């Protein structure tokens, strides 16, 4: 707690205007205020704004770099952004985007089609993906053509949401994956890095932004916190304006301190949060074992205790609330492994040869204890609580689950290289469930242990999923897509590739004391919890400072 308090104090000092070696201070901004946001899972910041190798760094893909379109999952709308319009090939084998004329990079250079070509080449080289793209061609300065090697109906929003970086900067890098990009050049509303310190940094206005009338706030200030507790203290004290993190007992801890200005909105449209098992390790390669462990979990306790009642238990489709229109109720009604049933769980484990010993604890067929780790990041206090609930639940059937809370970087590294036992995990969250199921059970996303994976950490795939996903991608007929998606849901329920726990709430709390224009349930122009998503740019370009 001493460390957290020290970090929170440092944030408070920064908010008071102390710059400590900075180049620009609040005073030099004529007393204007910066939109202040905590980052609860980064105790310190490294000045690395590489959108390809370090895409999760705060504001990189929100305020600095932009995409050709912006999809808003809160209401399902799509807004043209760096592109004004596009033409989709009738057979689904390509898209042509028409870029917005007059857009400039923050260094004054024009946005051109070559920037799009370079961005996709770098994304594929550094992070992989976009395997369906055969060629990306600059037809002219404002037209870029994508040709696919197979029909791919989800491509519009997949391609359209890729951030675009300037070719004239990135083509000059010897090793783009290692370029830290400390002074980024972007098309976004806030690109000018200043006051960069280990625990905070500011982004000021892009002097060449293509929508200057929407730069109503002076800039963004990010604060680093080594966990929810420090970020929540800053929120409670009014030191931040926008709090996109888990806040326990939010009505009392946050809203009640200033009910006139404070509010929250937690829709259950985020990524599905699951308990994943490393299927390269026995007995996790057995679907019945995964189902047995799932049936031992009390999801009502997980959601009410671990998640403070902010979400609901998952069902056997694995789909979050974002995909309610796709959900097949027949699959929900016919599947049992997301319902708690200790007797059935024990029977499945017995059948797998994982039996109870004289001490009441289960042993594997070779006589060794059935004991394993549940990995989770220490900074995510809500998910640590979820792990503790699961550990207590599993003890009731003689299974020992150790909650291994470590630094998130260490946890993610173990996921990526395939050395973990089990752990909490988030899913792909895209406009359709295609990416979710592909990242959960396609053989195309399975990497060998030791080879870095960016999805499908549990390393599970079945050919049946590949076939269904290919069929879905090949058709644009909505009825046919729904039928295929029903089959994918049934396959997920049969295989239990991961154990779905609950749809992630889109945590979003804010104050109207200094800024107005926030989205909410009545005006869902963006998700209040989407500070790390492309759609957060909609918020940055809508907010207005309170005058006076």
Quick recap of the structure?
By secondary structure, the chain is of the alpha+beta class.
Q: Characteristics of this structure?
A:
548 residues, 5-stranded mixed beta sheet
Q: Name the overall outline.
A: globular
Give a short account of the largest sheet.
5 strands, mixed
**Low confidence ranges:** 1-28
Secondary-structure-based class equals alpha+beta
Termini separation:
37 Å
Number of helices: 17
Percent of residues in beta strands: 15-25%
The radius of gyration computed from the alpha-carbon positions, rounded to a whole number of angstroms, is: 24 Å
Report helical residue fraction: 25-40%
Compute the average pLDDT. Answer: 92
Quick one: how many beta strands? Answer: 25
Walkthrough of the structure:
With 548 residues, the protein is an alpha+beta fold. It contains 17 helices and 25 strands. The protein is globular and about 75 Å long. Helix 1 crosses helix 6 and helix 15 (463-474) runs antiparallel to helix 16 (478-495).
SSE topology:
Elements: H1 2-15, E1 35-39, E2 41-42, H2 60-64, E3 66-67, E4 69-72, E5 77-80, E6 83-88, E7 94-99, H3 113-126, E8 133-140, E9 143-148, H4 155-160, E10 163-164, H5 167-170, E11 190-197, E12 200-205, E13 219-226, H6 228-236, E14 242-243, H7 250-253, E15 262-264, E16 272-277, H8 287-295, H9 299-306, H10 329-334, H11 342-351, E17 355-356, E18 362-363, E19 371-377, H12 381-395, E20 400-406, H13 408-417, E21 422-426, H14 434-441, H15 463-474, H16 478-495, E22 499-503, E23 509-511, E24 515-516, H17 536-540, E25 544-545
Parallel strand pairs: 1-13, 19-20, 19-21
Antiparallel strand pairs: 2-13, 3-10, 4-5, 6-7, 7-9, 8-9, 11-12, 12-13, 14-23, 15-23, 16-21, 16-22, 17-18, 24-25
Helix pairs in contact: 1-6, 8-11, 9-12, 14-15, 15-16
